[in-house]
TrEMBL record, chain A:
The protein's name: Codanin-1 C-terminal domain-containing protein
Organism from which the protein derives: Pygocentrus nattereri
Pfam families registered for this protein in UniProt: Codanin-1_C
Domain Codanin-1 C-terminal: residue ranges: 860-973
Start and end residues of each stretch annotated as Disordered: 56-104, 139-311, 324-365
Automatic annotation (TrEMBL), chain B:
PANTHER family per UniProt: CDAN1-INTERACTING NUCLEASE 1, SIMILAR TO CDNA SEQUENCE BC052040
Protein name: CDAN1-interacting nuclease 1
Organism expressing this protein natively: Pygocentrus nattereri
CC terms in the record's Gene Ontology section: cytoplasm; nucleus
Pfam family, any one: TPD
Subcellular localization(s) per the UniProt record: Cytoplasm; Nucleus
Taxonomy, superkingdom: Eukaryota
Record's keyword terms, sorted: Cytoplasm, Nucleus
Length: 1308, 280
């Protein structure tokens, strides 16, 4: 590889040939240049990438590193100067700083024995050319030095590896061109683990020789024709790490301890808090705290951090977040995910000192100062070819790298000079020149690449484009590129829509699935009732507190979760709960934007609109006010943003296998259902073909549908993956032995999802655009062993092929492809993806077969993905914008030095909008309306609306547009008839007229929809639907249909008319006689509408009020209170002043009468009590217990005549509508006793009352008699009874004779 | 029909002032009068409701103590004087009556009598064999404005009436709804007073269900209601509205954005989905 690159740089190999070779075009095969035949692309690409990374390692000091290319150790190497050692006989002095660029020369990936000395290299190259490749070095004899037994275990290998430079030297020549050797090693390694394990080790330890170990992977092992049974696993290679102090201790120091190598990856995870939990943030220069816990440990300097566009969190809050995150990490053991909460640190060592503040002396990049322009061009060409051929693992990572180059600012004068110097010195060594050693070159290179990949760029969001267009460096280096960017930016229609915030967060109770009949027992039903409430309680508590410092899910909610879940087990309610859980998950997380992710606030877009200049100022202001937002790089590890975290933590905490199984079943089912969803293409719906403008509208709907399906599927897949691999998650990759055992064990068991099957089928049916994104989500949840299981390994291989074949080409489906490229690229970069896989070559190209007989129709052939969906699925694409914005703010800060962050005292950043606009509210209401209705209602309404809307457009086209055009033709012909007319002018004026007239389309559309939508809905909904629901559904349908039709018409009617007019005009102008179409005045829609009016029983019949009742009677409660008051005065204790007027009682009785008559607000309990109180009151009255006065003036209390009052009472009881008054109370023992003890007048009143009641038939004489008898049972003094008797005899009114006799009887 | 007009929302401090004042009150009409005189700006019902809530809290705290005290020291016949006149016995007259009857029956029958018997005797003192006791019990229950069968009945009536008032208001506005009975019939496990068939927006907040509470919403009862009812409704039907007809502590109305809206009367600012149906 090195040789090839060097040859290219030295123009020994034609660039075109190399490009063709990279692009798999014909032509290079005949090349006489052997290099292209010898070198494998799988090796060349990583080499090139590493080369570029290394080249720029000096200059690129900002932002997160674009991982993968540069091992962490490259820099120390420079410092230590041990590089000399690897150079063997080379003079060691003064070489340190140069070494990096030479590193690749030693890469075993390349035909390594081209060793160090440039001269030697050259000779060897020549030699090898003569010798049909480098077979010399691949001779098996070389490998004999590596005893298979000797490195059976990693530890052995390690020990073998450490001190044996010689060993290494002998073994390094091994190449991929030796099948035998490969077989050898394949057997030896017995499985993929060894490979990956060692690779990881290598990653950590690789110094320079194994620089390509970063990208080595299978490329190194590439087996030309060597058929090896194991599917993957490149044979590992031992490498030397000259930088490792333990491997190569400084002279005079003895080796202290065996290395405890940490498995490392290309991405060297350095989570913010895990790596330095106790150390202070290193950004001591600014008072900036480490930014959000989930972001990378962002270069502490201000320029590496783009201020977040919105959602300022105050510093305090942030610190707390950080603390929280730390404490979370502290208990990471339970986490199935790797302890990489955020993004990884740059593998490059952090240099806090010089970088802490933007260097005010950053030289302005100048096109004139670019050195090695031709070589840079060449590199750019090669690089671009790699990118466009998808030979790089992640296209967007490369783009990010390029943008980093573009915005680089740290150039150290000394280094620059030194490198400039080295350029002169090392003239002969093409690879050692510092091509990217200064800002000018970096920017030059970046701009070249950007120019080349303009198509890709142009699909980025508008804000990024604007920032790029206004970037002064782009302007300086390529005005053409800038102009194109400006142009694209203007045409860029994609906008980030404000997402419809879902305000209903609960899962509706649906009787069909949730009522008692769906449960096995009452107990289960009631337990589930409680569980539902507990679940939401937990959710609310989480919402309230999870952002607070020190809050932990496990500690705060763990026990409650488990208690609830154990109740599930007891009641066998798992399936119900799993359904609730799943629905709630979808409900809360399906939205395009997750809660609390400030990075993608829509304001950023706004901010982008104001332009770089003002943006700079704004940004600076913002930066001072807001915590800086860290760049997280384009490949953040998988995460559970927003509410997803709750669901994840819940499952983890609950750790309930039954629940998980039910969930898996449910998720799988819904997922596969979604996967099968049919999205209609334009052809399928409208046969209009070319003029399928109408298809556009439908396509828009289908697009939306697709996007919602895709988002939900991704969500479900992520959780399915999470649950499926949860049992296997470990925080660190397991050792090889364990992994091997696990593979053996787990490969016997059927995976939860037939990933390969799904994948093949989607390729076959051209549905990758739907399936692949969710599969990627699923696979991103894999545990460390997962990728090595045959099924997943194959699936990853398939995805890899898919990726390689998916070369972005301009076209209708560019964004579809872009989405796949983005998600796949991301997958290939996340930690769990085996690093050796990408450049491995042994993956059977099975796709080719598949693609040979794929169906012609499929989702892939529909333009379904738009920019919004792309950015929603790949939020990390926003990193470009952040990077560029950071550059703007940084470049504008001339002050340099200390930037003090001001803790903002502003109010809540994202307080919910207090005043929703009416329109929004209306929409919310509609959404709410559907919430508690059966789901079919919503489907029906949406379906009808869509159809009616679409029909409406067709109708308008058939009527209005054709009428207008016809009218236009007439005008045109008339106009052409007259003399001296300019046809073109006429054309324009008629066209304008028609377009104006076209605006009435909206009005017509409204009429059409109002006429058609309601009846359609009415027919389709069940007749039993209540009238209000029906009416509401109708009006919503009408609105939706009208909206759809009108929005399409308003934006398209002009175009439509123009197009129609254009063709008519041309027709007329060709003097082809225009066929006078008969008016098709088919104005449908006024036909008789189906009147399905059903009787509407809106009000429950109020139980028989009087016909003229106005329901204005006093409420029973009030009246009871009033009577109670009176009674309480009667029973005392009371003061002398507390007296009642006769009038008062009278009024009270009147009120009671009123109240009892109106039944509206009356309950039987109240009625009973009311009646009872009146009886009681009557008792008190006759017994003289009421302090009554006839009027205020009178001071006499005794002489009140109660007769009229008593009559009122009787009247009341006579007229009551329903239940009789409990008059027996009048005859109860206490009353009778009281009567016996009362005065004569009171006894008389009592008898009067009884008489009246008997007269009215309210009391029967026998009844009275029966109670009278009781008197005998009581021990009354005889005289009392006699008195009573006497009284009754003299009483004015006749007392029933029965009573006489009774009394006589009782008397002794 | 009633209420409305003046706002019955109280801020926490106001509520505390009233609650503090009720500390020294006994549940008699005399004390109620003092309360009314002291806070003339608040409606009687609100004051009574607040007093009732506070008094119930007080009773809960002290009931056990009094119970023991009565068992130990008192003979029921003399207790009337104690319960009404001796202020150091801070026990509701009705509760006192209940304890006395309980004790009386226990002594008479030598066993604990059932709740039903006890309740019926309290409701209908003439059933009590001891005439003297019956008279006392009647006096106690009639005088008590916080406990007792009369008060229970009043509370029940108030609750019913307000639910009906609510339904009436909804009908007036042509808002169609399902009430508890409908919902039970459909097998719902939790049933608010009202579920609107077509949701409305009140003061910019979506409302799916309405719960009528004919009492004052103080901190404690609101918390209980939230846990037992309101959140459960939210969990099933989405956001909703609670009407505390006798007012509530204004600070409790803090879950609006989360989907629980508090009002002290039927809302006037209603936006309906179908303009032709609604009035506003």
């Amino acid at each position: 590889m090195a040789a090839l690159l060097e040859s290219l740089l030295q123009s020994e190999v034609e660039l075109n040939r190399a490009l063709n070779w990279l692009r798999r075009r014909k032509g290079y095969e005949n090349d006489d240049h052997h290099l292209l035949l010898k070198v494998r692309k799988e090796e060349f690409v990583p080499f090139l990438l590493n080369f570029l990374r290394d080249q720029s390692s000096n200059t690129l000091t900002h932002g997160p590193s674009t991982p993968a290319k540069t091992p962490s150790s490259s820099r120390p190497l420079r410092a230590q100067g041990y590089s000399s050692e690897r150079r063997g006989n080379r003079s060691s002095t003064g070489q340190g700083s140069r070494s990096t660029s030479r590193v690749q020369l030693f890469s075993p990936v390349s035909h390594t024995s081209q060793v160090d000395n440039p001269n030697e290299l050259d000779t060897q190259l020549i030699g090898s050319q003569g010798l049909t490749g480098i077979s010399t070095f691949s001779s098996p004899s070389f490998s004999s030095g590596w005893s298979p037994a000797a490195r059976h275990t990693p530890s052995e290998r390690r020990s073998a590896q450490r001190p044996c430079l010689a060993d290494f030297m002998t073994s390094s020549p091994e190449t991929q061109s030796s099948p035998t050797l490969q077989q050898h090693r394949g057997r030896r390694r017995s499985g993929p683990f060894g490979a990956s394990a060692t690779n990881r080790q290598m990653g950590a330890r690789s110094g320079h020789l194994e620089d390509s170990g970063r990208w080595d992977g299978a490329g190194r092992k590439g087996k030309c024709g060597g058929k090896i049974s194991e599917p993957v696993s490149p044979p590992t290679q031992v490498e030397l790490n000259f930088n490792n102090l333990e491997d190569f201790p400084p002279v005079g120091k003895s080796l202290v301890s065996p290395v405890t190598t940490k498995p490392s990856r290309r991405i060297n995870p350095t989570p913010v808090s895990a790596e330095r939990p106790n150390s202070k943030p290193k950004s001591c220069f600014t008072s900036t705290p480490l930014s959000q816990p989930c972001s990378p440990p962002s270069m502490p300097e201000s320029m590496g951090t783009a201020p977040s566009a919105t959602s300022p969190l105050c510093l305090q809050e942030e610190r707390e977040l950080l603390k929280k995150e730390r404490s979370k990490l502290a208990q990471q053991t339970s986490s199935p995910l790797k302890p990489i909460p955020g993004v990884c640190t740059p593998t490059r060592p952090v240099r806090p000192g010089p970088k802490a503040t933007p260097d005010p002396q950053t030289p302005c990049p100048d096109p004139a100062k670019v050195t090695n322009a031709s070589e840079l061009n060449l590199l750019a060409e090669l690089y671009c070819a790699c990118i466009s051929e998808n030979l790089v693992p992640c296209v967007f990572l490369e783009l990010f790298f390029v943008l980093q180059l573009l915005t680089t600012r740290s150039v150290f004068a000394s280094e620059t000079e030194e490198q400039a110097h080295s350029v002169h010195v090392g003239k002969t060594d093409a690879l050692e020149r510092a091509y990217l050693g200064n800002v000018h070159n970096c920017v030059y290179f970046a701009v070249r690449v950007l120019e080349n990949h303009f198509a890709l760029l142009s699909h980025l969001d508008r804000c990024t484009l604007r920032l790029l267009a206004e970037n002064e460096r782009v302007g300086a280096f390529s005005p053409a590129l800038r102009d194109r960017l400006v142009q694209t930016q203007d045409t860029c229609r994609a906008k980030v829509l404000p997402d419809p915030t879902t305000f209903i967060h609960s899962v509706p109770f649906q009787p069909a699935t949730d009522n008692r009949t769906n449960f096995s027992s009452d107990k289960a039903f009631h337990i589930f009732k409680k569980q539902r409430d507990i679940f939401y309680e937990l959710l609310r508590e989480w919402e309230d507190y999870h952002k607070e410092p020190g809050w932990e899910f496990e500690a705060a909610l763990g026990n409650r979760v488990r208690t609830m879940v154990s109740q599930l087990t007891a009641a066998g309610n798992h399936c119900h709960f799993a359904r609730l859980f799943q629905k709630q998950l979808v409900q809360m997380c399906k939205g395009p934007r997750v809660l609390g992710s400030p990075s993608d606030a829509p304001d950023a877009d706004l901010l982008g609109m104001v332009g770089a200049d003002s943006l700079g100022r704004l940004k600076r202001l913002q930066e001072r006010l807001i915590q800086p937002q860290a760049l997280s790089g384009p490949c953040p590890p998988p995460s559970f943003p927003g509410h997803q975290e709750f669901f994840k933590d819940f499952l983890q905490t609950a750790s309930c296998c039954q629940l998980n199984q039910h969930l898996k079943d449910g998720l799988c089912q819904q997922l596969l259902q979604l996967n099968e969803v049919s999205i209609l293409g334009p052809e399928a719906t409208s046969a209009a073909g070319e003029e399928g403008a109408d298809g556009d509208m439908e396509q828009q709907d289908e697009k939306q549908r697709f996007s919602s399906v895709l988002l939900v599927a991704r969500l479900l897949a992520k959780f399915l993956g999470f649950i499926s691999f949860l049992p296997y998650q470990t925080s660190e990759a397991p050792s090889r032995e364990i992994q091997e055992a696990a593979i053996a064990l787990r490969s016997k068991c059927a995976p939860v999802l037939d990933v390969c099957g799904v994948l093949r089928s989607c390729v076959h049916r051209k549905r990758t655009v739907l399936t692949v994104p969710w599969l990627v989500e699923f696979l991103s949840m894999l545990d460390y062993t997962g990728p090595f299981l045959p099924c997943y390994r194959t699936a990853l291989g398939l995805l890899l092929q898919l990726y390689r074949r998916m070369r972005l080409s301009q076209g209708q489906f560019y964004l579809n492809q872009l989405l796949l490229v983005a998600v796949l690229g991301w997958l290939f970069q996340i930690p769990v993806f085996p690093e050796d896989l990408f450049f491995s070559v042994d993956i059977k190209d099975e796709l080719e077969e598949l693609e040979n007989h794929i169906s012609s129709q499929g989702l892939d052939c529909l333009a379904l993905v738009d920019q919004q969906l792309l950015y929603t699925c790949c939020p990390y694409l926003g990193e470009f914008r952040k990077l560029l914005a950071a550059f703007v703010s940084g470049s504008a800060s001339k002050t340099g030095g200390l930037i003090r962050k001001i803790t903002p005292t502003s109010a809540e950043p994202r307080g919910p909008p207090t005043n929703r606009s009416q329109q929004k509210l209306h929409l919310d209401l509609e959404q709410a309306f559907f919430h508690n209705q059966p789901p079919s209602l919503k489907r029906t309404v949406e379906f009808v609306a869509e159809r009616v809307g679409s029909n409406c457009v067709k109708h308008i086209k058939a009527t209005l547009v054709s009428e207008l055009v016809k009218g236009g033709e007439k005008t045109l012909r008339d106009g052409l008839g007259s003399e001296g007319v300019n046809a073109a002018k006429l054309n324009v004026s008629i066209c304008a007229q028609l377009c104006d007239a076209g605006m009435q389309a909206l009005e017509r559309a409204t009429r059409f929809c109002s006429a058609n939508a309601p009846r359609a809905v009415r027919v389709l909904l069940p007749e039993e639907t209540s009238e209000t629901v029906m009416t509401t559904a109708e009006s919503i349908t009408t609105r939706l249909a009208t909206e759809k039709a009108c929005s399409w018409l308003s934006s398209n009617i002009t175009t439509l008319i123009k197009r129609e007019w254009k063709s008519s005009f041309e027709r007329v102008m060709k003097n082809v006689p225009c066929p006078a179409n008969t008016e098709s005045a088919d104005t449908d829609g006024t036909g008789q509408s189906l009147q399905l009016l059903r009787n509407f029983s809106g009000q429950d019949a109020v139980s028989s009020c009087p016909p003229d009742c106005t329901h204005k009677a006093p409420l029973s409660s009030d009246v009871i209170i009033e009577i109670k008051e009176v009674l309480s005065i009667a029973v005392g204790p009371r003061t002398e002043e507390e007296v009642l007027m006769v009038q008062q009682i009278d009024t009270l009785l009147y009120k009671v009468g009123q109240t009892l008559r109106c039944r509206k607000f009356m309950s039987s309990v109240a009625e009973q009590m009311l009646l009872r109180c009146t009886v009681l009151l009557a008792c008190k009255l006759v017994l003289g217990e009421l302090p009554l006065m006839s009027s205020f003036e009178s001071t006499k209390r005794a002489g009140v005549d109660v007769r009229s009052l008593l009559e009122d009472f009787v009247l009341l009881w006579t007229n009551i509508p329903s239940a009789p008054a409990p008059l027996h109370l009048l005859l109860s023992e206490p009353t009778l006793t009281a009567v016996l003890h009362a005065s004569d007048m009171q006894r008389r009143n009592y008898l009067l009352l009884i008489t009246l009641l008997i007269e009215k038939g309210l009391l029967k004489e026998e009844e009275v008699g029966r109670h009278w008898i009781k008197l005998s049972e009581l021990s009354w003094p005889v005289e009392s009874i006699e008195k009573f008797q006497k009284l009754s005899l003299v009483s004015a009114s006749p007392v029933p004779s029965v009573k006489h006799s009774d009394i006589l009887q009782v008397s002794p | 029909v009633l209420l409305c007009g003046t706002t019955m929302k109280l801020c926490r401090a106001e509520y505390r002032t009233i609650a503090k004042f009720t500390d020294q009150l006994r549940p008699t009409r005399q004390c109620m009068k003092m309360l009314k005189d002291r806070f003339p700006n608040h409606s009687q019902s609100t004051l009574l409701s607040i007093f009732s809530l506070e008094y119930q809290k007080r009773m809960k705290r002290s009931l056990v103590r009094h119970h023991n005290w009565i068992i130990l020291k008192c003979y029921y016949g003399t207790l009337w004087i104690l319960c009404c006149l001796v202020p150091q016995v801070d026990l509701s007259p009705s509760l006192m009556a209940r304890l006395l009857v309980e004790r009386f029956l226990e002594e008479q029958q030598g066993s604990v009598s059932s709740k039903q018997v006890l309740n019926s005797m309290l409701r209908e003192p003439s059933l009590i064999p001891d005439m003297q006791l019956a008279k006392h019990v009647e006096q106690c229950t009639i005088n008590d404005c916080c406990y007792g069968p009369l008060v229970d009945c009043i509370k029940h009536a108030i609750g019913q009436e307000h639910e009906e008032i609510l339904r009436e208001k909804l009908r007036e506005r042509n808002l169609s709804f399902l009430d508890e009975n409908h919902l039970r019939a459909k097998g719902y496990d939790k049933t608010p007073d009202i579920i609107l068939e077509v949701p409305i927006a009140v003061e910019g907040h979506i409302v799916h269900w309405i719960e009528s509470k004919a009492s004052f919403g103080d901190e404690q009862s609101h918390r209980t209601y939230l846990n037992d009812q309101f959140w459960s409704y939210w969990n099933r039907f989405g956001p909703g509205l609670v009407i505390y007809w006798y007012g509530f502590i204004a600070e409790l109305d803090c879950q609006r954005d989360r989907g629980i809206l508090l009002k002290d009367c039927f809302p006037s600012d209603i936006i309906t989905l179908c303009h032709r149906l609604g009035e506003s």
